[in-house]
Amino acid sequence: MIAAFANWLHATSLGWAAGGGLPWVEPACKTVHFLGLALLIGCAGLYDLRLLGMAKGLALGPLQRLMPFAALGFLINLATGVVMFAGSPFQYLENVTFWLKMLFIALAGVNVLAFYLTGLARQVAALGPGQDVPVSAKLIAAVSLCLWIGVVYWGRMLPFIGNAF
Amino acid sequence: MEFLSQIEHSGFSNWVRESGSQWSYPTILFLHTVGLAFLVGLNVAIDLRILGVARRLPVAPFERFYRIMWMGFWINAVSGIILLAADATTKLANPTFYVKMAFIAAAVVVMVRIRRTVFGDPQIDQQPIAPSAKLLAWASIICWTGAITAGRLMAYFGTDSGAPQFINRIGG
Q1: Range of the domain at A131
Q2: Is residue A163 one of the residues assigned to a domain?
Protein backbone atom coordinates (compact mmCIF):
# COMPACT_ATOMS: atom_id res chain seq x y z
CA MET A 1 0.00 0.00 0.00
CA ILE A 2 2.82 2.37 0.89
CA ALA A 3 4.62 1.37 -2.30
CA ALA A 4 1.48 2.08 -4.34
CA PHE A 5 1.14 5.48 -2.70
CA ALA A 6 4.83 6.22 -3.31
CA ASN A 7 4.49 5.26 -6.98
CA TRP A 8 1.41 7.42 -7.38
CA LEU A 9 3.05 10.40 -5.63
CA HIS A 10 6.20 10.06 -7.70
CA ALA A 11 4.10 10.05 -10.89
CA THR A 12 2.36 13.34 -10.02
CA SER A 13 3.74 16.60 -11.37
CA LEU A 14 4.94 17.31 -7.83
CA GLY A 15 7.06 14.16 -7.93
CA TRP A 16 8.34 15.14 -11.36
CA ALA A 17 9.29 18.66 -10.23
CA ALA A 18 10.99 17.52 -6.99
CA GLY A 19 12.70 14.63 -8.74
CA GLY A 20 14.73 17.01 -10.87
CA GLY A 21 12.14 18.19 -13.40
CA LEU A 22 12.46 21.66 -11.88
CA PRO A 23 16.03 21.67 -10.60
CA TRP A 24 15.48 24.48 -8.07
CA VAL A 25 12.68 22.69 -6.19
CA GLU A 26 14.89 20.29 -4.22
CA PRO A 27 17.45 22.91 -3.05
CA ALA A 28 14.60 25.31 -2.22
CA CYS A 29 12.80 22.65 -0.16
CA LYS A 30 15.97 21.67 1.70
CA THR A 31 16.67 25.33 2.50
CA VAL A 32 13.16 26.03 3.76
CA HIS A 33 13.24 22.72 5.71
CA PHE A 34 16.17 24.13 7.71
CA LEU A 35 14.35 27.41 8.34
CA GLY A 36 11.33 25.43 9.60
CA LEU A 37 13.60 23.31 11.80
CA ALA A 38 15.03 26.41 13.49
CA LEU A 39 11.56 27.90 14.05
CA LEU A 40 10.18 24.66 15.49
CA ILE A 41 13.12 23.87 17.79
CA GLY A 42 13.58 27.51 18.78
CA CYS A 43 9.99 28.07 19.89
CA ALA A 44 9.24 24.60 21.29
CA GLY A 45 12.72 24.40 22.82
CA LEU A 46 12.35 27.76 24.56
CA TYR A 47 9.12 26.56 26.16
CA ASP A 48 10.80 23.27 27.19
CA LEU A 49 13.75 25.13 28.69
CA ARG A 50 11.36 27.27 30.75
CA LEU A 51 9.62 24.11 31.99
CA LEU A 52 13.05 22.81 33.00
CA GLY A 53 13.63 25.95 35.07
CA MET A 54 15.34 28.48 32.81
CA ALA A 55 14.07 32.08 32.69
CA LYS A 56 11.51 31.44 35.42
CA GLY A 57 10.40 35.07 35.17
CA LEU A 58 8.31 33.97 32.20
CA ALA A 59 4.81 32.77 33.09
CA LEU A 60 3.95 29.63 31.14
CA GLY A 61 0.40 30.63 30.17
CA PRO A 62 1.36 33.57 27.93
CA LEU A 63 4.48 31.73 26.78
CA GLN A 64 2.18 29.31 24.99
CA ARG A 65 1.69 32.10 22.43
CA LEU A 66 4.95 30.87 20.94
CA MET A 67 3.40 27.47 20.20
CA PRO A 68 1.64 28.55 16.96
CA PHE A 69 5.09 29.49 15.63
CA ALA A 70 6.46 26.07 16.59
CA ALA A 71 3.45 24.54 14.82
CA LEU A 72 4.15 26.76 11.79
CA GLY A 73 7.73 25.44 11.72
CA PHE A 74 6.38 21.89 11.87
CA LEU A 75 3.90 22.50 9.02
CA ILE A 76 6.61 24.14 6.87
CA ASN A 77 8.73 21.03 7.37
CA LEU A 78 5.84 18.65 6.77
CA ALA A 79 5.10 20.39 3.45
CA THR A 80 8.72 20.62 2.26
CA GLY A 81 9.31 17.07 3.53
CA VAL A 82 6.40 15.71 1.46
CA VAL A 83 7.75 17.46 -1.64
CA MET A 84 11.25 16.01 -1.15
CA PHE A 85 9.72 12.60 -0.48
CA ALA A 86 7.69 12.83 -3.70
CA GLY A 87 10.89 13.46 -5.66
CA SER A 88 12.45 10.11 -4.76
CA PRO A 89 10.10 8.16 -2.45
CA PHE A 90 11.94 4.85 -2.51
CA GLN A 91 15.22 6.41 -1.42
CA TYR A 92 13.37 7.24 1.78
CA LEU A 93 11.18 4.14 2.13
CA GLU A 94 14.14 1.82 1.75
CA ASN A 95 16.23 3.71 4.29
CA VAL A 96 15.91 2.67 7.94
CA THR A 97 16.98 6.18 8.97
CA PHE A 98 13.83 7.63 7.42
CA TRP A 99 11.65 5.30 9.50
CA LEU A 100 13.57 6.15 12.66
CA LYS A 101 12.99 9.84 11.91
CA MET A 102 9.26 9.20 11.45
CA LEU A 103 9.21 7.16 14.68
CA PHE A 104 10.84 10.01 16.62
CA ILE A 105 8.38 12.55 15.15
CA ALA A 106 5.49 10.28 16.16
CA LEU A 107 6.92 9.92 19.68
CA ALA A 108 7.29 13.71 19.91
CA GLY A 109 3.61 13.94 18.92
CA VAL A 110 2.60 11.44 21.61
CA ASN A 111 4.65 13.44 24.11
CA VAL A 112 2.80 16.66 23.19
CA LEU A 113 -0.55 14.84 23.44
CA ALA A 114 0.40 13.49 26.86
CA PHE A 115 1.21 17.04 27.98
CA TYR A 116 -2.21 18.35 26.91
CA LEU A 117 -4.46 15.33 27.60
CA THR A 118 -3.21 14.74 31.15
CA GLY A 119 -4.11 18.33 32.00
CA LEU A 120 -0.45 19.18 32.70
CA ALA A 121 -0.49 21.96 30.10
CA ARG A 122 -3.43 23.63 31.83
CA GLN A 123 -1.86 23.08 35.24
CA VAL A 124 1.43 24.79 34.32
CA ALA A 125 -0.38 27.56 32.40
CA ALA A 126 -1.97 28.58 35.70
CA LEU A 127 1.45 29.07 37.33
CA GLY A 128 2.80 32.57 37.72
CA PRO A 129 6.27 33.90 37.04
CA GLY A 130 8.99 32.42 39.24
CA GLN A 131 7.06 29.23 40.00
CA ASP A 132 8.45 25.76 39.46
CA VAL A 133 6.52 23.15 37.46
CA PRO A 134 5.79 19.57 38.60
CA VAL A 135 8.45 16.92 37.93
CA SER A 136 6.17 15.23 35.38
CA ALA A 137 6.15 18.43 33.27
CA LYS A 138 9.95 18.63 33.48
CA LEU A 139 10.16 15.04 32.32
CA ILE A 140 7.96 15.84 29.31
CA ALA A 141 10.13 18.88 28.50
CA ALA A 142 13.34 16.84 28.66
CA VAL A 143 11.82 14.09 26.50
CA SER A 144 10.63 16.72 24.01
CA LEU A 145 14.11 18.27 23.68
CA CYS A 146 15.75 14.84 23.26
CA LEU A 147 13.20 13.70 20.68
CA TRP A 148 13.49 16.82 18.49
CA ILE A 149 17.28 16.64 18.60
CA GLY A 150 16.85 12.97 17.67
CA VAL A 151 14.64 13.94 14.72
CA VAL A 152 17.40 16.28 13.51
CA TYR A 153 19.91 13.47 14.00
CA TRP A 154 18.01 10.93 11.88
CA GLY A 155 17.26 13.56 9.25
CA ARG A 156 20.93 14.49 9.00
CA MET A 157 21.92 10.81 8.84
CA LEU A 158 19.67 10.09 5.82
CA PRO A 159 22.58 10.31 3.34
CA PHE A 160 25.04 8.52 5.62
CA ILE A 161 23.27 5.48 7.02
CA GLY A 162 21.65 2.83 4.85
CA ASN A 163 23.39 3.98 1.67
CA ALA A 164 20.14 4.85 -0.03
CA PHE A 165 21.16 8.30 -1.23
CA MET B 1 46.12 27.90 -2.06
CA GLU B 2 49.15 25.74 -1.21
CA PHE B 3 48.47 26.35 2.46
CA LEU B 4 44.75 25.53 2.15
CA SER B 5 45.60 22.34 0.34
CA GLN B 6 47.93 21.40 3.19
CA ILE B 7 45.12 21.91 5.71
CA GLU B 8 42.73 19.96 3.53
CA HIS B 9 45.14 17.05 3.34
CA SER B 10 46.18 16.96 6.98
CA GLY B 11 45.53 13.70 8.78
CA PHE B 12 42.58 15.14 10.67
CA SER B 13 40.93 16.64 7.58
CA ASN B 14 41.39 13.41 5.69
CA TRP B 15 39.77 11.53 8.54
CA VAL B 16 36.81 13.93 8.69
CA ARG B 17 36.26 13.76 4.96
CA GLU B 18 37.15 10.24 3.98
CA SER B 19 37.23 7.86 6.95
CA GLY B 20 33.59 6.90 6.50
CA SER B 21 33.36 6.81 10.29
CA GLN B 22 30.01 7.71 11.78
CA TRP B 23 31.89 10.00 14.17
CA SER B 24 33.60 12.05 11.50
CA TYR B 25 31.72 14.00 8.82
CA PRO B 26 28.16 12.85 9.69
CA THR B 27 28.37 13.63 13.41
CA ILE B 28 30.10 16.98 12.88
CA LEU B 29 27.41 17.96 10.37
CA PHE B 30 24.72 16.89 12.87
CA LEU B 31 26.28 19.06 15.59
CA HIS B 32 26.37 21.98 13.13
CA THR B 33 22.61 21.55 12.61
CA VAL B 34 21.79 21.31 16.33
CA GLY B 35 23.86 24.42 17.03
CA LEU B 36 21.97 26.21 14.26
CA ALA B 37 18.62 25.15 15.69
CA PHE B 38 19.35 26.55 19.15
CA LEU B 39 21.26 29.67 18.11
CA VAL B 40 18.88 30.77 15.36
CA GLY B 41 15.72 29.25 16.83
CA LEU B 42 16.03 30.90 20.24
CA ASN B 43 17.15 34.17 18.69
CA VAL B 44 14.09 34.22 16.42
CA ALA B 45 11.84 33.40 19.40
CA ILE B 46 13.30 36.46 21.19
CA ASP B 47 12.80 38.52 18.01
CA LEU B 48 9.15 37.44 17.95
CA ARG B 49 8.66 38.65 21.55
CA ILE B 50 10.25 42.02 20.68
CA LEU B 51 7.90 42.22 17.69
CA GLY B 52 4.90 41.78 19.96
CA VAL B 53 4.19 38.03 20.22
CA ALA B 54 3.24 37.01 23.80
CA ARG B 55 3.24 40.68 24.79
CA ARG B 56 1.83 39.86 28.25
CA LEU B 57 5.27 38.50 29.12
CA PRO B 58 8.09 40.72 30.36
CA VAL B 59 10.99 40.97 27.89
CA ALA B 60 13.81 40.96 30.45
CA PRO B 61 13.78 37.23 31.41
CA PHE B 62 14.35 36.25 27.76
CA GLU B 63 17.96 37.40 28.20
CA ARG B 64 18.63 34.09 30.00
CA PHE B 65 18.54 32.30 26.66
CA TYR B 66 21.63 34.16 25.41
CA ARG B 67 23.72 31.58 27.26
CA ILE B 68 22.25 28.76 25.17
CA MET B 69 22.47 30.87 22.00
CA TRP B 70 26.20 31.44 22.58
CA MET B 71 26.62 27.73 23.21
CA GLY B 72 25.00 27.11 19.83
CA PHE B 73 27.27 29.73 18.29
CA TRP B 74 30.46 28.11 19.61
CA ILE B 75 29.33 24.59 18.68
CA ASN B 76 28.86 25.91 15.16
CA ALA B 77 32.07 27.93 15.05
CA VAL B 78 34.09 24.83 16.00
CA SER B 79 32.16 22.33 13.85
CA GLY B 80 32.14 24.87 11.01
CA ILE B 81 35.93 25.31 11.13
CA ILE B 82 36.35 21.51 11.03
CA LEU B 83 33.97 21.19 8.07
CA LEU B 84 35.80 24.04 6.33
CA ALA B 85 39.24 22.51 6.95
CA ALA B 86 38.07 19.22 5.45
CA ASP B 87 37.12 20.96 2.22
CA ALA B 88 39.11 24.21 2.36
CA THR B 89 40.09 24.78 -1.27
CA THR B 90 36.55 24.20 -2.53
CA LYS B 91 34.60 26.08 0.10
CA LEU B 92 36.90 29.10 0.18
CA ALA B 93 36.57 29.37 -3.61
CA ASN B 94 32.79 29.36 -3.31
CA PRO B 95 31.26 32.90 -3.31
CA THR B 96 28.22 31.56 -1.44
CA PHE B 97 30.49 30.81 1.54
CA TYR B 98 31.35 34.52 1.86
CA VAL B 99 27.69 35.47 1.58
CA LYS B 100 26.99 33.07 4.46
CA MET B 101 29.82 34.55 6.56
CA ALA B 102 28.59 38.10 5.91
CA PHE B 103 25.06 37.20 7.01
CA ILE B 104 26.38 35.48 10.16
CA ALA B 105 28.59 38.44 11.04
CA ALA B 106 25.63 40.80 10.62
CA ALA B 107 23.30 38.50 12.59
CA VAL B 108 25.77 38.27 15.50
CA VAL B 109 26.28 42.06 15.53
CA VAL B 110 22.49 42.47 15.66
CA MET B 111 22.23 39.83 18.41
CA VAL B 112 24.80 41.70 20.54
CA ARG B 113 23.13 45.04 19.82
CA ILE B 114 19.76 43.70 20.94
CA ARG B 115 21.35 42.57 24.19
CA ARG B 116 22.97 45.97 24.77
CA THR B 117 20.16 48.27 23.71
CA VAL B 118 17.00 46.25 24.42
CA PHE B 119 17.98 44.04 27.38
CA GLY B 120 20.45 46.60 28.68
CA ASP B 121 17.68 49.15 29.19
CA PRO B 122 16.46 48.98 32.82
CA GLN B 123 13.13 50.53 31.72
CA ILE B 124 12.63 47.78 29.15
CA ASP B 125 9.36 46.49 30.64
CA GLN B 126 8.05 49.86 31.82
CA GLN B 127 7.42 51.26 28.36
CA PRO B 128 6.40 50.12 24.89
CA ILE B 129 9.14 48.56 22.79
CA ALA B 130 10.96 51.19 20.73
CA PRO B 131 10.68 51.09 16.92
CA SER B 132 14.47 50.82 16.76
CA ALA B 133 14.30 47.57 18.76
CA LYS B 134 11.67 46.20 16.37
CA LEU B 135 13.91 47.12 13.47
CA LEU B 136 16.75 45.14 15.09
CA ALA B 137 14.41 42.15 15.56
CA TRP B 138 13.47 42.22 11.85
CA ALA B 139 17.15 42.59 10.90
CA SER B 140 17.93 39.54 13.05
CA ILE B 141 15.26 37.40 11.36
CA ILE B 142 16.41 38.51 7.89
CA CYS B 143 20.13 37.94 8.58
CA TRP B 144 19.62 34.44 10.05
CA THR B 145 17.33 33.51 7.16
CA GLY B 146 20.05 34.70 4.79
CA ALA B 147 22.76 32.76 6.66
CA ILE B 148 20.81 29.48 6.59
CA THR B 149 19.85 29.96 2.95
CA ALA B 150 23.41 30.72 1.86
CA GLY B 151 24.72 27.82 3.96
CA ARG B 152 22.37 25.38 2.27
CA LEU B 153 23.04 26.75 -1.19
CA MET B 154 26.81 26.32 -0.79
CA ALA B 155 26.11 22.74 -1.82
CA TYR B 156 24.60 23.85 -5.12
CA PHE B 157 26.67 26.84 -6.23
CA GLY B 158 30.37 27.02 -6.97
CA THR B 159 32.66 24.18 -7.92
CA ASP B 160 32.14 20.60 -6.82
CA SER B 161 33.87 19.38 -3.72
CA GLY B 162 37.49 18.32 -3.93
CA ALA B 163 36.46 14.89 -2.71
CA PRO B 164 34.64 13.34 -5.67
CA GLN B 165 33.48 10.25 -3.82
CA PHE B 166 31.85 12.52 -1.27
CA ILE B 167 30.10 14.94 -3.58
CA ASN B 168 26.71 13.83 -2.37
CA ARG B 169 27.72 13.88 1.25
CA ILE B 170 29.61 17.12 1.26
CA GLY B 171 27.08 18.61 -1.11
CA GLY B 172 23.89 17.18 0.29
Answers
A1: 2-157
A2: no
